[in-house]
Amino acid sequence: MDPLVSVGVRVRLARVSPVPQLGGVIGVSYTLPTACSTSATPSSNTASCFPEYWTPSGYIAPMLDWFNKYAVQEVLETDATGGSATKETDYSYSGAAWHYDDNEITKAKYRTYGQRRGYQKVTTTTGNGSGDAQTKQVDSYYQGMDGDRLSSTANRSVSLTDSQGGSHTDSAELGGSILESTSYLGNGGGVDNSTITSYWISAATATRTRSRLPDLTARAVGTAEQWTRQRLTDGGTTSWRYTETDTTYDATRSDDDFGLATFAYTHSVPVNSAYDRCTSTTYAPANTSANLVGLVSSVESDSVACSGFSEGSVASVPDSLNTLGAPASVTRPDQVVAAARTFYDDTTFSTTFPQTTAPTMGMVTMTREATDYGTGAFTWRTTAQNTYDSTYHRLATATTGNGNTTTTAYTVNSAYLTTGQSVTQPTVSGVAYTSSSTLDPERDLTAQYDALGRATSVWKNSRATTALANLTYTYTLSNTSLSGVVNRPGSNGDSIS
Known about the structure:
The chain is mostly beta strands. It contains no helices and 32 strands. The protein has four domains: 1-204, no CATH class; 229-388, no CATH class; 405-437, no CATH class; 446-489, no CATH class. It has a 20-stranded antiparallel β-sheet, with no helix packed on it. Strands 29-30-31-32 form a four-stranded antiparallel β-sheet, with no helix packed on it. A two-stranded antiparallel ribbon has the order 3-4. A hairpin with a 6-residue loop joins strand 17 (221-232) and strand 18 (239-249). It starts with 14 loop residues before the first strand and ends in an 8-residue tail after the last strand.
């Protein structure tokens, strides 16, 4: 920062003590991961600082200045009583990105590359490495820099490369989303496992034109592919297991199911049909007036490949998006792993499927699962039937697939407060067991607090505060010994908790 305007120093949290009344201390230290140079070109700046216009005291117009952006370097969690070892967590960063300011509130002449897009890679280690072995994890992120402004006539093109050499467009909609997460066999050890994530981005669902700025658009985003590798050390040798899950979404804007997953294909890499799993999902009709959209209606999982799949030239990057469909062929029931249906808001328990009426409350009233297949259709078994009370839509009856019903009844007063509840279990040997409880929400409970807002005395059931309290609390705080809370009973014999 310009020494003439060094009044811009910002105080940062460095210590938290004590941790919720337990005598712990959290210490936080900060760093500038990449030193700042004011000679840097704003459009290509990757340091831990950024340019910004501001108006210092005594100035009559904004001036361009550079500001540091600090990041957490270390967190120490210390037991002040000495009972536990200090937990150390360290962070390191690389690949800072600064986007051109696309805030409409900022005047065009004061826009510059001051919009923070975080660090592309963050390394986290735990443990101090001396008597406390260190773990290590490295996470890399999308930063949403593709399409960023370079000049009035040019935009930048940005792609990110994963550990397998796959290239991923750093789309604006993906800023902050995980690209790759890698866990190591301790700090200094080899890779234990890693996951690389690619995404589907829909066409624009809404667009607003902005003056001298790119159009503002709304889009749906979903995980299109998760590619995973896992180190295996069976038999004293190291090998790798590669798996992948690809997902297709409804991309038709006019559909009620727009943006919802319709097919998911889990498989090995390269594909081995013995490990194929294709899952198809359908949804109940949407009730847009009640905002009930995306309620799962049916799920079928088959041990075959989904149609429409082709592996990318680099497996960690999809060859194409939203191309999956129903399996070309399924031998039922042999290749069916599971099939289930869910029904909503139908107290008649009709088994007609799919439901043609949109849910009104989104309450599950019946579930069914496939038990066999013959003559071109599944045989279905009801696994649950539910009803709900009319006041607060709480579970009233729950019937299992064996026909055993548990009934819950609620007593509600004229103020719509619940004053009682009884639960009747299924009949066993001709006897139905019922348990009940009585509540009195209208009777007072009075509490007294200390200066820190902690309860010190509690009087139950409208008991006068001039009488002995039903419960009293005493707090012990110490930086050198154990802290705690003692709950003492009053004259009514409440037990210590």
